[in-house]
Amino acid sequence: MSISGWRENSNQLTLDYLKEVNDYGVSRLIFTDINRDGMKQSPNFDETSKVAEISNCPVVISGGVSSIDDIKKAKNLNNIEGIIVGKAIYDGDIKLDELVKEDA
After folding, report:
1. What is the 3-state composition of the chain as percent helix, strand, coil, each rounded to the nearest 5?
2. What domains are defined for the chain?
């Protein structure tokens, strides 16, 4: 797990950390796989699903979104509240009007 804007590695596993802080009263959690962030290789759905399974609050997926298919897949996962899309919009791989249609 990385901290301080991803500049430092805490040497703690994400799931172990989540178990420690799960009852702190957080209203939602953003899980970013920093190895995929900005890479447009699809989010780490497996790890995000594990986080969502353990989390006491809804989870937002971040890192690696490449297409509308990634968004559709995220909608079918349990305890996932949303997905952050950045570079795929910036590069034109996902159009904003596609996102509006997908939200309907």
Report:
1. 35, 15, 50
2. 2-103 (3.20.20.70)
- The residues facing 30 across adjacent strands are 60
Which two tokens mark 93? 């791989």
Q: Which residue, 33, 28, 36, 46, is CA-closest to 82?
A: 28
Task: Dump strand ranges (E) for the chain.
Answer: 2-3, 8-9, 29-32, 59-62, 80-83
CA angle in degrees (0–180, nearest 5) for 102-73-28: 90
Beta-carbon contacts of 20 under 8 Å, excluding residues fewer than 6 positions away, are none
pLDDT by residue, tens only, the chain of 104 residues: 444 444 545 445 677 777 777 778 888 888 888 777 666 778 889 888 988 888 888 999 988 899 999 999 998 999 999 999 988 998 999 998 887 876 54
- pTM score, whole prediction: 0.73
